[in-house]
Write a structure and sequence with these properties.
With about 240 residues, the chain is an alpha/beta fold. Helix content is about 45%, strand content about 15%. The protein has an 8-stranded parallel β-barrel with strand order 1-2-3-4-5-6-7-8, surrounded by 6 helices. It binds the ligand O=c1ccn([C@@H]2O[C@H](COP(=O)(O)O)[C@@H](O)[C@H]2O)c(=O)[nH]1.
């Protein structure tokens, strides 16, 4: 679970959320694949498809394909295999699709051996608060619900979860060191706007809390100078680690 595809490598995953492919690739060209990975999500994949992923691979980036599959086991496991065929570094499903579905996805990737992508599951979206959970009929706290979904993910044999950094310390102690914690909702000290994110943390605090990978979008992609924003975050991290 831990020893393939360059883990840990760069801890920052830049979320490429653009309506324009040329803009996304221009940004990628201004970044350094040795300093970050990139994430392709629903917007860009729906517009530009697998070709965008190939173009990023050609530029030397490892790609997290963030399509959050949520369907019956047969469909979801086939989708995960398609992602593996594309050669992505990481792919995800929704943990709320259930343990049987997640286990089917994990099993489907067995035949790829060490070439398989990391397979993780989304717990509770970082844009959701306790009130949002109540709105969909879930009365437990975000922490308790994340903990429940992460335990299911672990039992299904996946590599880790997407959660907020606010749950990282809890999950690290519950699921151990090898369970990958991928945390969006990261807001560096220089980025004032939380936007639609509810459960946020700074990069340094997130790493201290136990995050393995920090997913960062707008604070980098919408910055006047994206490479400088990325470097500023890395400097924050390095300073805190000294
Ligand atoms: O719970 C989740 C799961 C995925 N995301 C994705 O991460 C990035 C975050 O972008 P920011 O601009 O830094 O807010 C975005 O692509 C989301 O789709 C998430 O935010 N939360």
């Amino acid at each position: 679970m831990f020893d393939h595809k360059g883990e840990l490598g760069p801890r920052i995953i830049v979320a490429l959320d653009f309506a324009d492919q040329a803009q996304a690739l221009a940004l990628a060209d201004s970044l350094d694949p040795s300093l970050c990975r990139v994430k392709v999500g629903k917007e860009m994949f729906t517009r530009f498809g697998p070709d965008l992923v190939r173009q990023l691979h050609n530029r030397g980036f490892e790609v997290f394909l963030d399509l959050k599959f949520h369907d019956i086991p047969n469909t979801t496991s086939a989708a995960v295999a398609a992602a593996a065929d594309l050669g992505v570094w990481m792919v995800n499903v929704h943990a709320s699709g259930g343990e049987t579905m997640m286990a089917a996805c994990r099993e489907r990737l067995e035949s790829y051996g060490d070439d398989r992508p990391l397979l993780i599951a989304v717990t509770v979206l970082t844009s959701m608060s306790a009130d949002d959970l109540k709105g969909i009929g879930i009365s437990e706290s975000p922490e308790a619900h994340v903990s429940r979904l992460a335990a299911m993910t672990y039992n299904a044999g996946l590599d880790g979860v997407v959660c907020s950094a606010q749950e990282a310390t809890m999950l690290r102690s519950e699921q151990g060191e090898r369970f990958r914690l991928v945390t969006p909702g990261i807001r560096p000290t220089f980025a004032a706007a939380a936007g639609d994110q509810q459960r946020i943390m700074t990069p340094v605090d997130a790493l201290h809390a136990g995050s393995d990978y920090l997913v960062i979008g707008r604070p980098i992609t919408q910055a006047d100078k994206p490479l400088e924003a990325l470097e500023a975050i890395q400097a924050e991290i390095q300073l805190a680690e000294e």
